[in-house]
Design a protein that fits this description.
Blueprint (H helix, E strand, L loop, with lengths): L4 H9 L9 E2 L5 E4 L2 E5 L12 H14 L7 H5 L2 H14 L3 E5 L2 H12 L5 E5 L4 H9 L3 E5 L4 H10 L5 E6 L11 H10 L3 E5 L14 H4 L7 E6 L9 E5 L1 H10 L1 H4 L6 H16 L1 H18 L5 E2 L6 E7 L1 H13 L2 E2 L2 E2 L9 E6 L6 H16 L3
Parallel strand pairs: 3-13, 5-6, 5-7, 7-8, 8-9
Antiparallel strand pairs: 1-2, 2-3, 4-10, 9-10, 11-12, 12-15, 14-15
Helix pairs in contact: 2-12, 4-12, 5-6, 5-10, 13-15
Length: 385
């Protein structure tokens, strides 16, 4: 039997060994981490909704009505009225004919891709797509073609040459490690001309971008029958789960064929009810998105001139490129010693030589919180040899 001790040691020597930290209490800008109050810039709770009292109350009411577990898959007896209501709410929120609720984004991406394409088909994948999209494309059995990041010209070339029965173009809407946006309008037009589906993973744009936070497709003014949206509900929405939205017949087909949906116990109904409450708050509270814009501008101004590059991003994802793994880990550790938590992201999550701090902003951060982070990074830069 293989002993993984040496493999783990090799990860540690390369500054690639991941660790977990124990968080007590509810999510927020200040966390109790290993018994110490810590200023957090590592959460995807972009709108500050994970502990919102209206959402918590909706979940508690649903727990009283439905109990905790769904007890079966959705296609047996696990699909509750709370799930049904949420799917109608998600369709209306995204402006799509129909939506289908999954237990998590990873399962949604794998299940949807596998339901749409297989042997004899082709998937065209942006090089910087999320791991779940990569895994879904590899597992589905279709031919996989990877095109350079956001390179419309290259994608058009490979689409034009493809003789596949069905063609599926797959991309993130907001790329989770760089914070940049996919050119969705151009992608949708290109896919329409080449008779291809466009699958957009809007994990980091849903709730943040577009009018009333309705997502990246709304932000880009894209609406077409061949466009499919996948969104996650554990980030800006502050709850859990994921969904796919699109043409009614297409969603029915996915429900019939997505193995990660068919063969999984449905999520607890209380999560569905809590998410419906979250959607109403997302649409209502424009101040949350305005706060994110203000904080991002403050951060960019405060970090200008430092030896590390802050990538341009109009989203809460603010990557600070350090370069080497050890340097990124050391900078994150220095911040941790000052009770500031910003994760260091290293290969293989990002390309070699681009290790970074991934600063995540939340509407519950204050200007004072961001100023504290800026001050700590400025001091670290001054102390460099």
């Amino acid at each position: 039997m293989h002993d993984f001790t040496q493999d783990l040691a090799a990860l540690g020597a390369s500054s690639l060994l991941r660790t977990r930290r124990v968080v007590a209490g509810a999510q927020g800008p200040l966390l109790d981490v290993d018994g110490r109050t810590t200023l957090s810039f590592c959460s995807n709770d972009y709108l500050g909704l994970a502990n919102h009292p209206e959402i918590v109350a909706a979940g508690v009411r649903a727990a009283d009505e439905y109990g905790m577990g769904a007890a079966a898959s959705a296609l047996i007896s696990g699909h509750s009225m709370a799930h049904e209501t949420l799917e109608h709410d998600l369709a209306a929120f995204t402006g799509m004919p129909r939506a289908l609720y999954f237990s998590c984004g990873y399962m949604a991406n794998i299940g949807v891709i596998g339901a749409l394409v297989g042997a004899g088909d082709a998937v065209f994948l942006d090089r910087l797509s999320h791991a779940s999209l990569i895994d879904g494309a590899r597992l589905c059995g279709a031919q996989l073609r990877i095109f350079p990041h956001n390179n419309i010209e290259r994608l058009e070339q490979v689409l034009a040459r493809s003789k596949a029965r069905r063609k599926l173009v797959v991309t993130d809407a907001v790329f989770s490690m760089d914070g940049d946006l996919a050119p969705l309008a151009e992608l949708a037009e290109l896919c329409g001309r080449h008779d291809a589906w466009l699958l957009v993973d809007d994990a980091h744009g849903f709730g943040v971008l577009g009018p009333q936070g309705r997502g990246s497709l709304a932000h880009a003014a894209v609406s077409a029958p061949h466009v499919i949206c996948i969104g996650t509900l554990g980030k800006a929405a502050g709850v859990a789960g994921a969904f796919v939205a699109g043409d009614g017949g297409l969603i029915e087909w996915i429900m019939q064929r997505a193995r990660t949906y068919m063969f999984s116990t449905a999520s607890p109904p209380l999560l569905a009810a809590a998410t419906s409450a979250s959607l109403a708050i997302i649409a209502r509270d424009q101040w949350r998105r305005a706060r994110l814009t203000q904080l991002a501008a403050q951060l960019a101004q405060g970090l200008a001139g430092l030896p590390w590059q802050l990538l341009p991003s109009m989203t809460p994802i603010q990557p600070l490129i350090v370069g080497d793994n050890a340097g990124a880990r050391a900078l994150a550790q220095r911040l941790r010693e000052q009770a500031i938590w910003v994760p260091a992201i290293c290969p293989p999550t990002v390309p070699k030589g681009t290790a970074r701090l991934r600063i995540s902003l939340s509407a519950h951060h204050t200007p004072e919180h961001v100023a504290q982070l800026i001050g700590a990074l400025q001091q670290a830069a001054e102390d460099l040899p």
